[in-house]
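Regression test attached.
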Amino acid sequence: MNALKIVRLTAWAAIGIITVALLYVLLNPVDREQGTGVASIGGPFRLADHDGQIVTDAFLRGKPYALFFGFTHCPDVCPTSMLEITNDLNALGNAAKDFRVYFVTVDPARDTAALLKEYTGSFDSRIIGLVPKDDAELANIARLYRAIYRKVDTPSGYTMDHTASIYLMDAQGQFFGTLDSRETPGVRQAKLKRLLERR
Amino acid sequence: MSLLLARLRSFALSLAILPLVLAASPLSAHDYKLGDLKIDHPWSRATPGGAKVAGGFMKITNNGKESDRLIGGTLVTAGIVEIHEMAMEGNVMKMRALAQGLEIKPGQSVELKPGGFHVMFLDLKSPLKEGESVKGTLVFQRAGTLEVEFKIEARGASGGHDHGHNHNGGHKH
């Protein structure tokens, strides 16, 4: 074996190793990202519910739940979303009997605890209003859930822009996915079923 | 006894005929004309408990040669009525008041429907209940004021179920 042949073999071996390494890196991006955990949605919060009870992320540990940002002066998206999730939970029957949907008002100036209780209760008793006591509490939970809310002036007052997805959180308080009005009831119910079955 | 049976039979017969009679009534019974405008089936949805707002929906057709604008209206149970547009930007719901109203160009139809243009009823004095009709008006820049009745449909209704074109399945079309 002459020197030239050794150089050529070494070069081919190097190319081979680099190719395998590159393929590994390119084909396994998901594996590498798993080390950093699931998308960071959720986290420590503390809010009063519509009965004045304190709800925290720690209190919710062990129970999957859903969370929605809305307000009662909302003509379309909020009632539609609450009606849809009520129908979805009813379709899931007994499996969803202890499930909770938290409705965080992005308009605490107008949405009192009593009003939110009447509003959510007119859909389903499993929907619970959460009432931030000030802008800081609202800003904190919106930031944790990466939700957007914005006050917009109208001729007679104001309305709110807001994120309209329903967040699904698992029993460990980790983000599981979202529900969307543009999905079919079948798709939404399959997601809820998977969430309820995951322990 | 036989008289009672005969009466029962005729009652049952009239019950059986009833759906046929209803089905034979005109499909677009709930529409209005004002000048060159045709307003088809103004409707709204039953409101959730405590809700002070609702959207009003309809289809407006301009059969004239000039553009017109829906600039306002009233509802007997609403303190304020505005013309709004709703739109989804990604997952964010955005709603805007239309300061210039909603234009209906000649030869065109504009549909006010969930998820888009709507008459915004604010400061509701009493809840809207399914099955009721609530009186109100629509105000157009050129054509003037029209008295209408808003039919209150179920929560989550997509509109048009007692009306020519039926949208089955959900609130999106």
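Expected vs. actual: identical. Residues 3-36 of chain A form one domain.
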